[in-house]
Write a structure and sequence with these properties.
With about 120 residues, the protein is mostly helical. The protein is built from 3 helices and no strands.
Length: about 120
């Protein structure tokens, strides 16, 4: 079961992932900065009857309801942008950790190879 994971880890272009992680994080932060504070949500209104002409007061009420729905949508979008920013930060930290592990693994393999060469050299004497 370990072999497919190793193959998958070798196939992933970690250099590209590490290179693009800060860009993704910055884009998520910019998206988060563009969003406004959320307002109170309103339930959806009933549809207009096209056969009757609505009064000015009814149109005004519907306009207020529509504005509140737009504000509610903006709040949902704000929450989604915040979640995206958090995910991008976690992704950046994960990529950094994977890069560190990759470097440590290379060092460990070099040290193990040197130890193996040293042991073979000692027994070959």
């Amino acid at each position: 079961m370990a072999i497919p994971w190793m193959v998958a880890l070798k196939v992933i272009p970690w250099g590209d992932v590490i290179e693009h992680a800060p860009k993704v994080l910055n884009a998520a932060r910019k998206l988060m900065d563009r969003q406004k504070a959320p307002l109170t949500p309103m339930p959806p209104a009933e549809p207009l009857d096209l056969n009757q002409a609505p009064s000015l007061g009814e149109l005004k009420n519907r306009l207020v309801e529509a504005r509140q729905l737009i504000d509610q949508q903006a709040a949902v979008q704000e929450q989604m942008a915040q979640t995206l920013a958090e995910l991008a930060e976690q992704n950046a930290r994960l990529v950094g950790a994977v890069d560190l592990l990759r470097k440590r693994t290379r060092i460990l393999l070099v040290v193990a190879g040197l130890l193996l060469i040293g042991v073979v050299w000692l027994f070959a004497r």
